[in-house]
Amino acid sequence: MEQYIIKGGKPLCGEVEIGGAKNAALAILAAANMTDETVYIDNLPDVRDINALLGAMEEIGARVERIDRHTVTVNGSGVTNCIVETESMKKIRASYYLLGALLGKYKRAQVPLPGGCNIGSRPIDQHLKGFKAMGAVTRIEHGFIIAEAEELHGAHIFLDMVSVGATINIMMAAAMANGNTIIENAAKEPHVVDVANFLNSMGARIKGAGTDVIRIHGVKSLHKTEYSIIPDQIEAGTFMFAAAVTGGSIVLRNVIPKHLEATSAKLLEMGCQIHENDDAIRVIAPKKLQSTHVKTLPYPGFPTDMQPQISVSLALADGTSIVTESIFENRFRYVDELARMGASVKVEGNVAVISGVDKFTGARVSAPDLRAGAALVLAGLAAEGITIIDDIYFIERGYENLDQKFRGLGADMEKVSSEKEIQKFKLKVG
Ligand code: UD1
To answer: How many C-beta neighbours within 10 Å does residue 156 have?
Structure first.
């Protein structure tokens, strides 16, 4: 089992290149199967979730060619059975995107019930409600969701809550349905817009992505395209908080500052300086972070995927902060681990009351999920002494070369897989 080992306490300084957005890439790769022509996709992150999806696509007959680490071509003309059986697909939430993509193109899909991070109950009723409104019949059998339709037709769909996944899934299926679909109360996240732009570049007719009403005029077929995925706002935000929590100064390259506004606003409230230009952001930490309050919300609100990272930073701020998690109920599972490093956080339901402490001390902790795992890395980078993080499998689902990127910013951090390597690291850092 691999672990991260970190000797913390150094301000992180320098430049870091942000990769492509995992959550946009997952949906775009699924959508790439909706044409028989070859699609070229770049700025793809090389992370476990993406590689699991590419593997599943090959198993159902898609031809995937890796041009380089961040570029693939996909040809979906060989997709034959529309039954996704891959074991690893059960572990990633976004396997459900194959449901919308295959249903849209082939009018039939069978996909394992989604897994992903254990951050709360994650129903997909809204996805299924949308498919049903378009004429599909859905059922769950032996751990699979099966969706079938004689013919998909346009529909007027009101989502009961703002759901990124349901918005994207319905949009994909509707792109190849007969007639017009309207999605009301749609999610506005940057990756919803990115998937719509990708589908439109293949000949789909989608308008309004990025607002809460999306209108889709179904087309008979989609064609080839070349597409570059947007930068990952969550990876970017994680590095912004790394600057804040270590008292450093980091320039992030390949970002869209507009997508990071909610994060930047909180960092400003916490006393950081933020300098933006077209595709870069610099975050400079103050001597001491200030407390603030934050509530997670759908975009353009503060993202739930950044909640653990801001909480870790607030745990070292001056004063008391209140963090309210309004999207997923189970997203404070890292708090017990953080307490082992000296943080003072009290969780009541979906609210965490964080009393800032002067310092963290290194400890052995384990990553409970993807973003919480990244937040524990931030805690380790800020802590005095050595931190070892177990279960980094979760972190690698969504971060490419995290240890290497932090080393590039001056961190003492390595990926290790044996007691011997841990000892070697300890000797090296003294
Ligand atoms: C996506 C992201 C995830 C992020 C989340 C919220 C991917 C692969 N994952 O997840 O990283 O944390 O958006 O920004 O892109 N809900 C229902 N019924 C549904 C669908 C959702 O009740 O059919 C609820 C969920 O339980 C949750 C809320 O709606 O409380 C938002 O979920 P949703 O936006 O769908 O998240 P995901 O698409 O799963």
So the answer is: 10
> What is residue 93's predicted lDDT score, i.e. its pLDDT?
72
Give residue 18's pLDDT: 98
Same domain, 297 and 319: yes
User: Do 303 and 181 fall within a single domain?
Assistant: no
Quote the pLDDT of residue 329. Answer: 81
Closest among 260, 254, 257, 359 to 312, alpha carbons compared:
359
Which pair of structure tokens corresponds to residue 295?
């509530």
What is the 328 CA–ligand 1 centroid distance (Å)?
Answer: 8
Domain span at residue 381 reads 3-19+231-429
Same-domain pairing of 355 and 334: yes
Cβ–ligand 1 contact at 305 (below 6 Å): yes
Distance from the first to the final alpha carbon of the chain: 24
Residue 8 pLDDT greater than 60, yes or no = yes
Quote the ligand 1 centre to 163 CA distance (angstroms). 5
Is the minimum distance from the CB of 329 to ligand 1 under 6 angstroms? no
125 Cβ below 6 A of ligand 1: yes
CA angle (83, 170, 400) in 5-degree steps: 70
Whole-number Å distance between alpha carbons of 342 and 96: 39
* Cβ of 328 less than 6 Å from ligand 1: yes
pLDDT at 176: 98
pLDDT digits (tens, 9 = 90+) for 156-168: 999 999 999 999 9
- Which residue lies with its CA nearest to atom 7 of ligand 1? 23
Catalytic residues: 117
Distance 385 CA to ligand 1 centre (A): 37
Do 219 and 236 reside in the same domain of the chain?
no
Strand partners, 275: 282
Q: Are residues 282 and 165 in the same domain?
A: no
> Which pLDDT score, from 0 to 100, does residue 113 have?
79
Do 181 and 239 lie in one domain? The reply is no
For the chain, the domain total comes to 2
Residue that finishes a domain, picked among 174, 198, 228 = 228
Tell me, what's the pLDDT at 142?
85
Same domain, 237 and 167: no
